[in-house]
Structures are given as C-alpha cells and as structure tokens.
Fold:
Amino acid sequence: MQLNSYIDHTILKPEATEEDIKRICQEAKQYNFKAVCINPCFVQLASELLFGTDVQVCTVIGFPLGANHGQTKVYETTHAISDGADEIDMVINIGDVKNKNFEKVEREIEEILVECKKNQKLLKVIFEVCLLSNEEIVKLCEICKELQVDFVKTSTGFSTGGASAEVVKLMKNTVGSNVGVKASGGVRSKEDALQMIEAGATRIGASSGVKIMQGETSKESY
Structure:
C-alpha cells in the first residue's frame, strides 16, 4: 500500500497565504500526494503550480457550514472548475438533514454532481458526522450511493469532531464498493491514517500529510 496515494494534503485555515499554498503544493509534489485540498480563492494558483504533475487540485464548496443557498454552491462549483479544480468537496446543508428534508438535500447534491460529471470532475460529499445520528449518516450514504457520487466524506474539520474508525466503517458498509469514503478531521499520524484505511477509507484528508509520511504525530487540528 502506498500511503501517500491516499492523502489529500490540506490547508483550509482562513489565514492561509499564497506562500502557504506554494509550500503545500511543493510538499504534495515531493511526496506525490493524491491531491491538495485548498479554499476556492487559491484554485487557480494551485492549478498553475501543479500543472504537469499527477497531484490533483481539490477545493471545498459551501465550506465549512454547508448553509449557503444551493445555487450559490452550484456557482462556486462551476467557477472552481473553470479555475482548474479537479475534485469538488461540497458540504451538505446540515439543517435540511435535521429537518428531514432529504429531497432538498438530494436535489442540491445532484445539481452539483451534474456540473462535476459534465466536466469529468470528482465529487465528494461532506456530511459533518459529529452533528449527525447514525440513522442520518446511513440515509445520506444511501442518497449518495443512489446518485453515484464519487466519495462520501466524514467532516470539514471545523466542527466539534472529526473522523472515527467506527463512522468510516458505517459509511463504507452503506455505500459499498462503488463509492469511496474520505476520512477527514483529526487524522494526525500514520497510525490514525492506517486505522481509517483499515475501517474502509479510500482517501484521507489531512493537514498533517508530511508528518504522517514521516511517521510523526502532528498537533494540527485538521
């Protein structure tokens, strides 16, 4: 197993600068990570820095709360793709889940998925599992499986908790083999990453990618 190929090397903190983006892109090239995951304002820069490499450019939509208007998320998606994004990580509207308005949740995901498929880009759907019940997580996984999204993702890393092996296993068991699971939030060491992969994760979102590869433990929150 090539652990580096699982990692989305991530920097989503609000105070990130262009120098930070240049650094993580260089690290991503050095370790041949699967992707860098950055805020939308840096997509064009990262796309230029990673041109000609195998590292994908991933960005976040409706981040971190998921409470944007659905059409705002669609616009964010199309703009990010035009800037050079290869992968889209969108946050669901958690309030709609709590209201049991799953038809609206599904419609929003589908509208963004259409834009991604039209442009041959990957879509990952962020749940924020720390705010959801197991029943809600399963329901969302079933929706995503039916829509044939590319990945379901545990967390933004900006709420009250992140990924756990138990919830990753629940998600993987529900979506099956045709949908990936991205574990993010609190994956700070090689041991953490391997535990998530053993539970069924097929992608790891972490700002600690270098520390993970070096066998060290990071103090980063994401």
Remarks:
- Strands lie at 7-11, 35-38, 56-61, 87-91, 122-126, 151-153, 180-184, 203-206.
